[in-house]
Description:
Layout: E1 7-9, H1 10-15, H2 17-23, E2 29-33, E3 36-41, H3 44-65, H4 74-81
Parallel strand pairs: 1-2
Antiparallel strand pairs: 2-3
Amino acid sequence: xxxxxxxxxxxxxxxxxxxxxxxxxxxxxxxxxxxxxxxxxxxxxxxxxxxxxxxxxxxxxxxxxxxxxxxxxxxxxxxxxxx
Length: 83
């Protein structure tokens, strides 16, 4: 596995935005201006993976926090969560 530099300057980003997008596909790419990080660039697939993990976490947390002894039906909760 090759570890890429995970930072890019704004001027490098302006010169070659396609390369920056490619570099940000697997790992966030920090965008620096005058040696200070101003933003992070993440690729489409990484963004979608993050969202998917967040949705799964929220769904699991909702199931854990539901008191099924109080009569809450699991199927009803699953429909609410779209799972």
